[in-house]
Amino acid sequence: MAMPDLKKWIQPAVMALPSKRKMALGFLLLLLFLFGVSPLFNQWMYPLKYEEHIFYSADATGADPFLVMAIIRVESKFDPHKRSPKGAQGLMQLMPETVDWVISEGRFSPAFRELVYEPSVNIHMGSWYISGLVREFEGNKIAAIAAYNAGPGNVKRWMKEGRWDGSRQRLDAVPFGETRHYVRRVTFFYEKYRSLYGHLVESEEAYTLPQ
User: pLDDT by residue (tens digit) across 88-144?
Assistant: First the structure.
């Protein structure tokens, strides 16, 4: 006798529910909302590795640690063994000629050539290089990011010829599509990593990008 009574009460409640498609969509939207506001989810989406090497090298070379993080994310997704078809190596995808130049100008040990895939060495050389580019472009991190991808000579020429003013607002004027995309990706990840890991530095306000 209990079963028919139970069915009589449950069936109207089930019939009153939205369609399965609507319920599935609502559940998906709820999950996306919860994950979107969850720091744990964001840290899963934007993981950080080798932070001890990043902060050490940033302190030693004057580099912006969040810029180093963003470059590593875009260049290698934190894979220390990555090698590009063009020969770029390691976490920060350093070209062999860049490694030679950094060793010479930075007075690093020639042994760094053989250790370029070692995270601490790669990060240190890459941090020294990007820090130098920021100084070369008088603190303009956007131009320095473009130079990391396209080479400082190209970026200087674009700016000298008036083709690009080095600003984020006029990024569409950059002649190389790859470089425009690269700068957008690095600046996107810069802001993500700064918002998620800014608590790891004493003064988060010291590290910014122009809007």
Answer: 999 999 999 999 999 999 999 999 999 999 999 999 999 999 999 999 999 999 999
Q: Which residues does the annotation mark as catalytic?
A: 75
- 109 is a domain residue: yes
Could you tell me the CATH number of the domain that includes residue 164?
1.10.530.10
Same domain for 31 and 100, yes or no, is no
Write b or e for each residue in 83-113: b if 16 or more Cβ atoms lie within 10 A of its Cβ, otherwise e.
eeeeebbbbbbbeeebbeebbeeeebeeebe
Distance CA 115, CA 104 (A): 15
- For the whole prediction, is pTM greater than 0.90? no
Report the phi/psi class of residue 95: left, alpha or beta, with left for phi > 0 and alpha for psi in -120 to 50: beta
What gap in Å lies between CA 35 and CA 57, rounded to an integer? 33
Summarised one tens digit per residue, pLDDT across range 8-55 is 554 565 555 566 776 676 676 666 665 555 667 777 889 999 999 999
Q: Which range of residues forms the domain containing residue 171?
A: 49-200
Q: Residue length, the chain?
A: 211
Calculate the alpha carbon distances from 116 to 4, 60, 104 in Å: 74, 18, 15
- Residue 209 lies inside a defined structural domain of this protein: no
Tell me how far apart the alpha carbons of residues 27 and 14 are, in angstroms, rounded to a whole number.
17
